[in-house]
Predict the structure.
Amino acid sequence: MRQKELRIALVCYGGVSLAVYMHGVTKELWNLARASRAFLADENAPTGSAAIYAALLRIIEDETALRLRVLPDIMSGASAGGINAVFLAQAIHSGASLEPLTELWLNNADVERLVDPDARPMWRFAKPYAEPLVAWLLRRPGSAVSESVAPETRSEVRGKVSRLIRGRWFQPPFSGSGMSELLYEALEAMAAEHAGPPLLPPGHPIDLFVTATDFRGYLDTLRLHSPALVEESEHRMPFTFHSPTPAEAGNPLADPLVLTLA
């Protein structure tokens, strides 16, 4: 019986993809890796979509005489994509479940929970001059709310967007400390649950790259032809993690505080 490895390097991008669909993508990749590990170990397939992936792997084996193992071993991302990449890498390396992250997004992925308390409108009639413009933008035909939001939830969405726009200006609206606390709690919840075996073979390397932004930046020298040297501001600040996959379950890729910082 032939065997092949399908190695996956994943790049997660950010923005509204944070909890809308990027977490769903990374969770399905996690389920695929779980199914692949169980299939190669001749174990019962996990439930849910992982069972479907395991059945697909069996079909490939029956029809092509090929045993395929899926190895997602490189994860990267920035902003919201970096968050999902961190959790996926932690789950693959340690064998922990991604369910705590799903619960985090379902319970807390709400703009009013993520906004810094100091950034909220001081009272109901804050910035009254902005209200007519906000109302027109959100209610006009063809707007994003009118086109993409279900009719029964449009009023709620319009109210939340209005309060966000009428909140604090010229400073970040969201709470960095609040978001960090949520992420740390999710990582701790992952560690507290019973972990299965790691999803990569023992000793197989796993790499995680998360790109943050250095607000002030630094000057980097570029060598060109004319002029010979140019100085350019560089703001990228990558966090890199590399580790061989452990043989035992429950070993984190890094300390939860370090992963939260990344």
Q: What stands out?
A: The mean pLDDT is 84. The two ends are 42 Å apart (CA to CA).
